[in-house]
């Protein structure tokens, strides 16, 4: 159940061609989208997250048309934007519970079990009573992953997640991503080569809105 992107283009009103005929086949597992600042990564991520529409092209998640069936995609989408803002006065436990309600997990017992599992998975269980305003950048990003994973999304989009993290937090965050299920599509957008080479099974390089290369970094390394 992968993601198919065909000839997707996007030109902004200021004339910038942010995506130029992008075609990609993204299988389940960890997929890295690598490129420098301004390459078009966020534009592609926001397009996949149904936050903006392409000028042309097709995007399919399995048999869901991502461009025209927005509601269906959103039901099975987890999106961690570049800077995940949190309400600082809520505790991790409270805010995750709140997002779970918004996701439609209305059964209290199920919600309790779901949020407990996610707080443990993201290594925040011991911190669950603390206010989010006091969280470090890495803790906020891990909390963002917990929110993004509510409802077991088939597509998880993670946009430049390690940008503001110190080295120790970065490793902890990447380890967390690497443990996510092989059944869903996880797309990690980054300008850091190591983010991709360390944990993605497939990758593409994007520059000036165009795909320059598709590769399998782990296999490439293993075959050396
Ligand atoms: P990134 O780090 O992904 O390149 P930016 O910091 O460039 O993101 O952009 C931050 C926000 O500003 C985004 O929401 C983006 O859509 C918007 N933005 C970026 N470049 C422009 C631009 N040239 N004109 C208008 N909005 C822009
Ligand atoms: P990346 O995430 O790889 O840094 P972006 O997708 O943010 O790249 O940006 C790609 C190009 O599109 C850049 O030149 C950026 O300035 C421009 N851009 C991004 N968002 C907007 C926007 N909302 N309006 C106009 N230009 C934008």
How would you sum up this structure, described in words?
This protein is an alpha/beta fold. Helices cover 34% and strands 27% of the residues. It contains eight helices and ten strands. The strands form two sheets. Strands 6-7-8-3-9-10 form a six-stranded mixed β-sheet, with helices on both faces. The chain is globular. It starts with a strand and ends with a helix. Bound molecules: adenosine-5'-diphosphate (ADP) (2 copies). One adenosine-5'-diphosphate binds at residues 12, 14, 16, 18, 35, 37-43. One adenosine-5'-diphosphate binds at residues 14, 37-38, 42.
Give short descriptive properties of this protein:
224 residues, six-stranded mixed beta sheet, four-stranded antiparallel beta sheet, globular
- Mean pLDDT, rounded to whole units? 91
**Quick one: overall form?**
globular
Task: Please state the oligomeric state of the protein chains shown.
Answer: single chain
SSE string, helices as H and strands as E? EEEHEEHEHHHEHEHEEH
Strand element count: 10
Strand content: 25-35%
Distinct compounds present: adenosine-5'-diphosphate
**How far apart are the first and last residues' alpha carbons, in Å?**
30 Å
Keywords: ATP-binding, Nucleotide-binding, Transport
Family: Belongs to the ABC transporter superfamily.
Protein name: ABC transporter ATP-binding protein
GO molecular function, one term: ATP binding
């Amino acid at each position: 159940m992968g993601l198919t992107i065909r000839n997707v283009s996007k030109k902004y009103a200021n004339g910038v061609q942010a995506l130029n005929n992008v075609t990609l086949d993204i299988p389940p597992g960890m997929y890295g989208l690598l490129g420098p600042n301004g390459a078009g990564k966020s534009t592609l991520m926001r397009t996949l997250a149904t936050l903006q529409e392409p000028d042309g092209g097709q995007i399919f998640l399995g048999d869901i048309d991502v461009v025209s069936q927005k509601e269906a995609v959103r039901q099975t989408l987890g999106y961690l934007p570049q800077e995940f803002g949190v309400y600082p006065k809520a505790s991790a436990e409270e805010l995750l519970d709140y997002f779970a309600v918004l996701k439609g997990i209305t059964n209290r017992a199920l919600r309790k079990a779901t949020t407990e599992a996610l707080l443990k998975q993201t290594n925040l269980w011991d911190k669950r009573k603390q206010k989010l305003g006091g969280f470090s950048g890495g803790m906020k990003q891990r909390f963002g992953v917990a929110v993004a994973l509510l409802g077991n999304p088939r597509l998880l989009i993670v946009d430049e997640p390690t940008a503001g993290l110190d080295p120790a937090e970065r490793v902890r965050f990447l380890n967390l991503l690497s443990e996510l299920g092989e059944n869903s599509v996880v797309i990690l957008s980054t300008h850091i080569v190591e983010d991709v080479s360390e944990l993605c099974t497939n990758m593409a390089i994007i520059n000036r809105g165009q795909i320059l290369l598709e590769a399998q970094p782990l296999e490439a390394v293993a075959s050396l």
